[in-house]
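In this section we walk through a basic example: taking a raw amino acid sequence and producing a predicted 3D structure, encoded as discrete structure tokens. The instruction is simple. Fold the sequence below.
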Amino acid sequence: MPIKNRFSEMLPEITAWRRDLHENPEILFETHRTAGIVAEKLEAFGCDEVVTGLGRTGVVGVIKGKATNSGKVIGLRADMDALPIHEATGLDYASKTPGAMHACGHDGHTAMLLGAAQYLAETRNFDGTAVVIFQPAEEGGGGGREMCNDGLMERFGIEEVYGMHNWPGQPLGSFAIRPGPFFAAADLIDIEVRGKGGHAAKPHECVDPTVIASHIVLALQTIVSRNADPTKQLVVSITSFETDSTAYNVIPSVVRMKGTVRTLDLEVQDMAEDRLKELAVGTAAAFGGEATVKYKRNYPVMINSEEQTDFAAEVAKRVTGQCEMAPLVMGGEDFSFMLNERPGAYILVGNGDTAAVHHPEYNFDDDAIPTGCSWWAEIVENRMPI
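The resulting token sequence is shown next.
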């Protein structure tokens, strides 16, 4: 069951869709143009129902098979949003929006699912209902959570849900997947350190929050090295460090830091949150300052269901002849919210030897399109056969 000929025929058209989306990136929930294009195409394909505005700017298309006697409903999800990155590819179709770029391949995901939707609406060679889901705000906004909160699963009767992401460094068009925990929980931390500012020539009259905050940054790394079970995964990263002064000769009064905590295990996540708060507050107090910590549990661990993962891997093998075991990923993925509501699976499709995602020189490889489209279509046709 190789790559479908129809998608090879459609490749120039789907590539044109993808490059148009790439040229016009939109961030978080501001995917108004993208959502409009998706809805317009789904209507043109002849979907039985097209719903907009779910999860603020999400789009859903319903495609009924030649028969619906099975009563099965399968959801297929793609993300639509871009990143706040200035593109450095030099492509003819590079972003026309300063400070915004499809640096994670969501343009490719959207185009591939549109291609699969067109094919499924043309052929309808399945017994059941396919629901194609186009989601905004994967990159930090929790668009998956918002669509679920708007009743996505209940409204359309979705029983299983499947997702896909391109993967640089993995051979072009190949597949990889793993059951169980796959992508990490990604929690957000904000730490404010307060001291007593003053003249840089008189540090003895100050309580320097920069020194305190620097000790906190180092102390937080002991959560991984001295508190966590070394056989389990944990990453603590401080990614932003700002004082309330830009002068050469002023010791600031406040330092603000941001960062993330990434885990694959609830027990480790609980421990990391507790220790982070204790270390920040305790270290600040030891130096005569104060610290407050805001800890937000953002994206949960993304967990692939065993049965659906086995099925998704078998479909991948039918399309390309192979499917490898994917590595654990400490990045977050808000498809986790959908997998928390319904069983399903998330698979990686190779993007070849390209720059990494979230890099200003990244680009989705259009030659992966027929493979990705075929996997989507085969998921539906094999899970709900006539």
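Looking at the output, two observations stand out. DSSP finds ten helices and 16 strands in the chain. The radius of gyration is 23 Å. In the next section we compare this with other chains.
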